[in-house]
């Protein structure tokens, strides 16, 4: 336990400019006296820890100190190598920089381990967005350069309501979520922070005009990135059969699914009352029946009838889909 604690203290000090003893004690759930003894042990072991007094005092490791490769096990290096290969698929770094980075990680292992490292394909991570055209890659690169150079960008954007609007944005950063890239920035049109999905951005223009990055606390920025819409949840009971069971297994947790004797799924779940909800349910077509709530079953029925009405001139679509519409009642 002491060895693990000493390692933890070392890692904290290496990743922070200065840390107070009380913070270390709270984080590691030990007494201040224990922390002082541990810091003394690290100093005796040759790790150059410097202490500072005063209200902004604390402990830090001199900047020139680095851990050597022996602090990382082969399994840890393999995990790092695997993660970097996954990052390589995101285009977050250009291929040349990523190749050099992978080479440097590979150089940390011995020659005897290198073959094992290259052959370690038990886990493959691929973050490649589903929409991965050359145009999308260039769009990502342009936005990335604007973020680094603090250049204003202008573009047309299709929002969640389907409206096409023109935006002028101070780009703050990029994030990869669910196989899609998102831009976080300050929208001058809305005078507020906004998140934009890159695939919905068109006619992108990077201006030569630069901006001063707004003073936004790191905590608040993380809250903005991780913000979730506070939508009311709807409790559903669904019967799913046929090919739709494949999509149900992908979408719903195992504890939400009850497998029936006839092979169908009885799914009890909660879904947000969002605009995309009806589109999500309609994708299951006639393989899904809403048992509860009744008002959502009626809503899906009306949507199906509205779709059928679009083809009423031919007469063929309505007559051919009558049974399907009845199944969704």
Structure write-up:
The structure is a single chain. With 329 residues, this protein is α+β, with helices and mostly antiparallel strands. The protein is 41% helix and 24% strand. It is built from 13 helices and eleven strands. It has helices at 2-15, 21-28, 32-44, 74-88, 95-107, 111-118, 134-149, 218-225, 244-251, 277-282, 294-309, 316-320, 322-327, and strands spanning 49-52, 58-61, 151-158, 164-177, 180-187, 192-197, 201-210, 233-240, 257-259, 265-272, 288-292. It is extended.
Brief write-up:
With 329 residues, the protein is α+β, with helices and mostly antiparallel strands. Helices cover 41% and strands 24% of the residues.
List SSEs in N-to-C order: HHHEEHHHHEEEEEHEHEEHEHHH
The termini sit apart by: 62 Å
Structure class: alpha+beta
Question: Which segments are poorly predicted (pLDDT under 50) over 5 or more consecutive residues?
Answer: 317-329
| Radius of gyration computed on alpha carbons | 28 Å
Number of strands: 11
The largest sheet, given as strand count, sense and whether it forms a barrel, is: 5 strands, antiparallel
Kindly report the spatial arrangement of strands forming the biggest sheet: 6-5-4-3-7
Shape: extended
Discrete helix count: 13
Overall residue-averaged pLDDT value = 78
Work out the strand percent: 15-25%
